[in-house]
Design goal:
Number of helices: 10
Strand content: 15-25%
Number of domains: 2
Helix content: 25-40%
Low-confidence stretches: 193-202, 255-260
CATH superfamily of the largest domain: Vaccinia Virus protein VP39
Length: about 270
């Protein structure tokens, strides 16, 4: 069910992405007919598993929009995106002009293309919005930015039998049925107060929501629908996942560009089955 020959790389850069631990996730995911991902992010798990069908969801409209654009008209859309990846566009002034245009446009195709541009040219692949919903990641100042055509094409090969939808995790759980498996990668429980200010979408994922997610996982498992959740390993997560099978490990993570700022964090995979 899961492809371990060679890990595929997502076309989006993503803080907290699952490339480092994809094999651990593959080992833990049970066989099923359909994969449900309520927090898809860059969709690393989706592109590295081989389920017959997939329900890929997120509350981030821009993530789902670009996936839908690739699914709808893959080759024309990829060609459309490529025009933004030129040396002239890898400049500070141009970046902020495109960022402003992105925040103002209602054209879904343009917004998706600019989202890819901002993701690759912005600081360290962050996806961050201010309280008004405006994308506010600063320019990354990279010497060269490559167009990820290969990874875009690989993604489109996975789109058959896949539904991409903007919805919260409760709605995704409500759609689950026997024969499904659910993988959840929620915004991680903060390790310190400063981490809690990180905005992936407009609203911060609260501890109450973390508890609700764990409760839904238990309910789903009781119905015969297994659920795997990844998160930081803390006293809080150990408590809310106490009825799950826990796999604990350390992984090197940081959103800093400097190697000396990358520290190992303790993480957990909680399998409700």
């Amino acid at each position: 069910m899961n492809d371990k020959k060679k890990s595929k790389i997502p076309f989006l850069k993503w803080a907290g992405g699952k490339r480092q631990i994809i094999e651990r996730i593959q080992d833990q995911l049970p066989d099923a007919k359909r994969l449900i991902e309520p927090f898809c992010g860059s969709a690393t798990v989706f592109i590295n598993t081989q389920y017959q069908k997939n329900l890929i969801a997120d509350t981030n409209h821009d993530v789902i929009n670009i996936f839908q654009q690739l699914q709808d008209k893959p080759i024309p859309f990829i060609k459309y995106c490529s025009q933004f990846f030129t040396p002239e566009n890898n400049e500070t002034e141009q970046y902020y002009q495109f960022r402003q245009e992105f925040n103002q446009t209602s054209n879904k195709r343009l917004r998706a293309a600019l989202f890819l541009y901002l993701n690759k040219h912005g600081y360290n692949g962050l996806c961050r919005y201010n309280s008004s919903g405006g994308f506010n990641v600063p320019f990354g100042k990279y010497k060269k930015v490559s167009f990820p055509e290969k990874y875009l094409l690989e993604f489109t090969e996975k789109c058959t039998g896949t539904t991409f939808v903007v919805q919260d995790f409760e709605a995704s759980f409500a759609m689950a049925k026997l024969g499904d498996v659910i993988y959840c990668d929620p915004p991680y429980v903060p390790l310190n107060a400063s981490n809690s200010s990180f905005r992936y979408v407009e609203k911060i994922f609260s501890l109450a929501q973390q508890e609700k997610l764990a409760q839904l996982a238990e309910i789903s498992a009781d119905k015969g629908i297994p659920v795997l959740i990844s998160n930081h390993l803390t006293d809080f997560t150990s408590e809310i996942y106490k009825n799950a099978k826990l796999t604990k490990f350390s992984v090197q993570r940081s959103i800093s560009c400097k190697g000396d700022k990358r520290e190992k964090a303790k993480e957990v995979l909680a399998l409700f089955n």
